[in-house]
Amino acid sequence: MLSLTHYLFLSFALFFIGLAGVLTRRNLIIKLFSIEITLNATTINLTAFARLYGDASGQAFAILVVAMLVLELLVALAIIAAVCSRWKCATPDDEKDLSSQLDY
Amino acid sequence: MLNHMLSAFRTYLHGDGAVLLPEMQLFLFAIGMLAMDSWTANTSSEKFGPNPGFRQKYWNPALALAGIAFSALTLWMLRARIIQSGELAGFHLTLVVDSYFIFFSALLLAATALVILLSVNCATMPAVRQGRYYALLLFACMSMMLIVSAVDLLVIFLAMEAAAISACFLAASPGLSNRTPSASVRFLLSSAFGSAVVAYGFSLLYGLSGATNISQVAAALARRHNVAKVIALSHQSGLQGLQMLQLLQSRLPEAVHWQAVTLEALPIAAFMLVSVGMILKFAVPSFQRQFNRTTAETDFGILSPVTLYVSGAYAIAAVALLLRSMFTIFADSQNIWWHIIAALAIVGISYGIFCSLRQTNLERIIVYLSIAHMSYVLLGVVAANEAAATAMTYYLFTYLFIVSGVFGVLIALRGENISAGVLNDLSGLRRRSPVTALLLIIFVLSLAGAPPTAGFFSRYFIFHALFETGHRYTAWFVALSSLPLAYSYLRIAVYVWRGRQSETEPGAVAFGIPEAIVLGVCVFVSLAAGLYSEPFTRMARYAFGQ
Question: Tell me: the pLDDT tens digits for A71-93?
Answer without folding.
Answer: 888 888 887 777 666 665 555 54
